[in-house]
């Protein structure tokens, strides 16, 4: 069960297709307060936002849907196969996302709640968020398992899947930097065991 003696906030990270959403849901089911950076990232590029206007100025109208919202699949196809384009996108979105995330962290720390909070951020170390948390939890999966899960989940070819995996910090690097590690290379039963073991340490 979450600790009610002192309010703590932990960062949760891991590579793409490592199972972060599944683990975040486990935390939620166990009574933890949860947030995720994907929700924040969608907010900063919603229609009429500064973020979306800057993306269109950089990449053109081709990254928009007919209704004026961001076409994520088209943008992904551009940036995940070209390091320079990915850097351009990150220069636009990362500062906006970080501002929003830090606002939430500040609100949590300044609130009267005593429940433990988990904030899932895929690019936690890349964005230097670790200093704002009481600890960092990283998910790890074996590379081939990660590849197969990503190909199946996103219906990608092996080449495209590797491009997306290699565009991010390796899971071994994240594992070495984290305070806690959950190995999610197995099935859901094994994950539940790893999760139960982890929460006794928080």
Automatic annotation (TrEMBL):
Q: In which pathway does it act?
A: Cofactor biosynthesis; coenzyme A biosynthesis; CoA from (R)-pantothenate: step 5/5
Keyword annotations for this protein, in alphabetical order, are: ATP-binding, Coenzyme A biosynthesis, Cytoplasm, Kinase, Nucleotide-binding, Transferase
Cited Pfam families: CoaE
Listed CDD domains: DPCK
Tell where it localizes: Cytoplasm
Say what the protein does: Catalyzes the phosphorylation of the 3'-hydroxyl group of dephosphocoenzyme A to form coenzyme A.
Provide the protein name.
Answer: Dephospho-CoA kinase
């Amino acid at each position: 069960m979450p600790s009610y003696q002192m309010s703590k906030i932990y960062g949760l990270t891991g590579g793409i297709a490592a199972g972060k959403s599944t683990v975040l849901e486990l935390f939620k089911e166990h009574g933890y307060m949860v947030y995720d950076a994907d929700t924040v990232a969608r907010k900063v590029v919603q229609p009429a936002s500064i973020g979306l206007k800057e993306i269109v100025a950089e990449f053109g109208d081709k990254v928009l849907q007919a209704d004026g919202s961001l076409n994520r699949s088209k943008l992904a196809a551009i940036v995940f196969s070209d390091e320079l384009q990915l850097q351009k996108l990150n220069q636009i979105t990362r500062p906006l996302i970080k501002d929003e995330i830090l606002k939430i962290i500040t609100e949590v720390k300044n609130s009267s709640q005593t429940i433990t909070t988990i904030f899932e951020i895929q690019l936690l170390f890349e964005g230097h968020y670790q200093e704002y948390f009481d600890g960092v939890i990283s998910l790890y999966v074996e590379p081939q398992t990660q590849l197969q899960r990503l190909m199946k989940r996103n219906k990608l070819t092996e080449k495209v899947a590797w491009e997306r995996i290699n565009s991010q910090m390796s899971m071994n690097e994240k594992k070495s930097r984290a305070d806690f590690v959950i190995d999610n290379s197995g099935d859901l039963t094994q994950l539940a065991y790893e999760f139960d073991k982890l929460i006794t340490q928080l």
